[in-house]
């Protein structure tokens, strides 16, 4: 069964235009040899700047902005959609076959009565992946009973997609390091083959708490960078264990 790499785009990397350009260039260079991948993102730093420009300074809970008003919610939704467009534009500029998908498109994400996020109706997404298209998926969901759209945690979106696509692929979660190597550095400047989530630090990954939570699932989690993700037949890096 083909491996599927669900790339968790954290706020740090989303706010780095040079990184997005570099990632797009790596995808372009890899061409059809690139591993089957989905890029998953939330609001990033762009929404924080948008809210601050309007005089709002909200905190985050598990990576999601705590909005207090309908105006704030709309600003967050708009900013998330714009982030999606920015990522797609970076990939398209490098002639990468890609498609932007909001989590609310075709009811992709649904929030259950148990407040657990699920991905449904993923057949069309699976078909895109098998055609070597790179989907860029935002962590937006329609709140049940209200019809309003809100942001959910990027890690929740990644886990929901991994569970839903498990019948067609072998899901793997990739998180990106801020280090200069494709993985968590060791004391000699090399890369550790594996690490426990409790040992992760912010100088290795921007959002270690989220990575720890994802590592507690049955889906393998790999810390890598753009080069480690796309410079070979399969990604290389450091495996994270619970």
What this model shows, in words?
- The protein is α/β, with parallel strands linked by helices.
- It is built from eight helices and 14 strands.
- It has an eight-stranded mixed sheet with strand order 5-8-2-1-11-13-14-12, sandwiched between helices. A two-stranded antiparallel ribbon has the order 3-4.
What are its keywords?
242 residues, alpha/beta, eight-stranded mixed beta sheet
Low-confidence stretches: none
What Rg do the Cα atoms give? 17 Å
Shape, per Cα inertia axes:
globular
Sheet with the most strands: spatial strand order: 5-8-2-1-11-13-14-12
Q: List the helices and strands in order.
A: EHHEHEEHEEEHEEEHEEHEHE
Largest sheet: 8 strands, mixed
What's the tally of helices? 8
Strand content: 15-25%
What class would the helix/strand composition place it in?
alpha/beta
Count of beta strands: 14
Distance between the termini: 25 Å
Query: How would you state the average pLDDT, rounded?
Result: 92
């Amino acid at each position: 069964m083909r491996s599927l790499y669900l790339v968790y785009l954290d706020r740090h990397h989303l706010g780095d235009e040079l990184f997005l350009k570099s990632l797009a260039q790596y995808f372009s260079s890899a061409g059809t040899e690139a591993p089957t991948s989905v890029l998953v993102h939330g609001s990033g730093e762009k929404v924080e700047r948008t809210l601050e420009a309007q005089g709002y300074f909200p905190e985050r809970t598990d990576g999601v902005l705590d909005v207090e008003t309908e105006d704030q919610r709309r600003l967050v939704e708009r900013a998330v959609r714009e982030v999606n467009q920015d990522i797609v534009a970076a990939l398209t500029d490098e002639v990468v076959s890609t498609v932007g998908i909001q989590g609310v498109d075709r009811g992709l994400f649904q929030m259950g009565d148990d407040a657990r996020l699920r991905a449904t109706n993923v057949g069309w997404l699976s078909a895109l992946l098998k055609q070597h298209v790179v989907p860029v998926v935002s962590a937006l969901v329609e709140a049940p009973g209200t019809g309003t759209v809100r942001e959910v945690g990027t890690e929740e979106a990644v886990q929901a997609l991994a569970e839903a696509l498990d019948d067609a692929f072998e899901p793997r979660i990739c998180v990106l390091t801020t280090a200069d190597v494709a993985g968590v550095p060791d004391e000699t400047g090399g890369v550790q083959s594996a690490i426990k989530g409790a040992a992760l630090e912010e100088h290795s990954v921007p959002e270690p708490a989220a990575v720890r939570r994802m590592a507690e699932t049955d889906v393998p989690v790999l810390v890598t960078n753009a080069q480690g993700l796309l410079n070979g037949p399969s990604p290389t890096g450091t495996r994270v264990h619970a």
